[in-house]
Design brief:
By secondary structure, the protein is an alpha/beta fold. Helix content is 31%, strand content 24%. β2 and β3 (36-37) form a beta hairpin. The structure holds 1-O-phosphono-alpha-D-glucopyranose.
Length: 289
């Protein structure tokens, strides 16, 4: 039986070195796209997929992320006193049900697989989603909700995938593909960041996953993979053949906000979707191009 998806793990322990000095004293997941931090996009996307339990895997210097989802009593009281209803409203989705968001620390940066393993007590025996907040997807139906629909169709493990230029396979987890109906593709193998000549396809994983809890026992082996890190991709590869495993070609546009150009592009794309900003942004863009 397919268990209901209620849990999400948000790995947020990365140092954000690509965005220094901006990330010297704050978490990279707090960087805003337009006016909302990356982490909040991830939490809202998870909620839209029916998720109501969250675990952030944090590290040193990440306390702003915890504060962000707490009640800001003085701020809210001041806004209320001043009748700033729009500002108050904008805070609404930063509030979480009491007890619905927990954090665990990844004390040492041993890789994404290790970060997920750190959340094992939260995961327990349940299916869970992973959202990497650096990957932002602009879509009519939020990406994780598309993935959840596919999960309820197929059961088992599902990752969001997209074709990348062949020379970029060394940046992503890459699928070896089986049966493929153009939307759902059967996963026959997974390789983390293969050189283009070794890549089994150019179908890459983006930062949205729905996984079965059994992946934890494989991650617990702490096998080192690409970059000498404990790779989530390698842990997932052990599930192939044991459980259903599919890739979903999601609808939408993905922005790699861990990269400066991707981050700037996301600002423009998201601003152009905002009724209050679109015209002004359009006008100034004409000036630059
Ligand atoms: C991670 C995963 C990789 C995946 C990517 C998606 O890599 O290890 O398999 O394709 O996220 O963004 P990272 O971006 O942390 O190097």
């Amino acid at each position: 039986m397919t268990k209901k998806l209620r849990k999400a793990v948000l790995p947020v322990a990365g140092l954000g070195t690509r965005f220094l000095p901006a990330t010297k004293a704050t978490a990279k997941e707090m960087l805003p796209v337009v006016d909302k931090p990356l982490i909040q996009y991830a939490v809202e996307e998870a909620r839209a997929a029916g998720i109501d339990q969250f675990c952030m895997v944090t590290g040193r210097g990440k306390t702003a992320l915890v504060e962000h989802f707490d009640v800001a009593y003085e701020l809210e009281a001041t806004l209320r006193e001043r009748n700033k209803t729009d500002a108050l409203e904008s805070l609404r989705s930063t509030q979480t049900e009491p007890g619905s968001m927990v954090t665990v620390r990844q004390q040492v940066p041993l890789g994404l697989g290790h970060a997920i393993w750190c959340a094992r007590a939260f995961i327990g025996d349940d299916p869970f989603a992973i959202l990497l907040p650096d990957d932002l997807v602009l879509a009519d139906q939020p990406c994780l909700a598309q993935l959840a629909d596919a999960y309820y169709e197929t059961g088992g493990n599902i990752v969001a995938v997209t074709e990348v230029p062949p020379e970029q396979t060394n940046r992503y987890g890459i699928l070896k593909t089986g049966r493929d109906d153009g939307r759902l593709v059967e996963v026959k193998g997974l390789v983390e960041k293969p050189a283009p000549k070794d890549a089994p396809s150019n179908l890459s994983i983006i930062g949205r996953y729905i996984l079965m809890p059994e992946v934890i026992k494989y991650l617990a082996r702490m096998e080192r993979g690409a970059g000498n890190e404990v790779q989530l991709t390698d842990g997932m590869a052990h599930l192939i053949g044991e459980q259903p495993f599919h890739g979903l070609r999601y609808q939408g546009r993905r922005f790699d906000c861990g990269d400066k150009v991707g981050f700037l592009e996301a600002q423009i794309a998201f601003a152009l979707k905002r009724p209050d900003l679109a015209d002004a942004v359009h006008t100034f863009l004409k000036h630059y191009v």
